[in-house]
Write a structure and sequence with these properties.
- The chain is of the alpha/beta class.
- It has one domain: Glutaredoxin.
- Strands 2-1-3-4-5-6-7 form a seven-stranded mixed sheet, with helices on one face.
Length: 139
């Protein structure tokens, strides 16, 4: 058998191995918290149980980041996380985070907790806010 005849098989196997590696890699979440923010260990444990690699960073203030994201005052929190190009404002449930990462909506920049206790809101690039877009709010 000629070595070139094995080239397509070798490329296919390498591609399959790479795809398997990417599929099992843990998503990394960078969590920015202020020192006066009450730790939410249950939220962090829930994210870790779903396979997220949570890295905590203590910061003096999260307002600068939230200003950049144009987070309305009523939706701001002392904890802001970033994962795969999206931001999480507050303790967004792991199920909603997973749903966001699977759907990958191009117009959404962040999820935040609804201050009215009605679930999750999505923040869009244009500054608009969409109520209850997340999976946990659906029957």
């Amino acid at each position: 058998m000629r070595p070139l005849a094995l080239l397509p098989v070798t490329i296919a196997l390498a591609g399959a191995a790479f795809a398997a590696f990417v599929a099992t890699a843990q998503p990394k979440i960078i969590l920015y918290e202020t020192d006066d923010c009450t730790p939410d260990e249950n939220w962090i444990s829930g994210l870790q149980a779903e396979g997220f690699d949570v890295r905590r960073e203590l910061v003096a203030d999260t307002n600068g980041l939230q200003d950049t994201l144009r987070v309305p005052t009523g939706l701001r929190d002392c904890r802001v996380a970033q994962v795969a190009g999206y931001s999480l404002i507050g303790s967004i449930p792991a199920s909603d985070t997973i749903h966001l990462l699977r759907k990958k909506p191009g117009d959404v920049i962040a999820l935040a907790l609804d201050p009215d206790g009605q679930g999750i809101v999505a923040l869009h690039h244009d500054g608009s806010v969409e109520r209850n877009p997340a999976q946990s709010q659906q029957p």
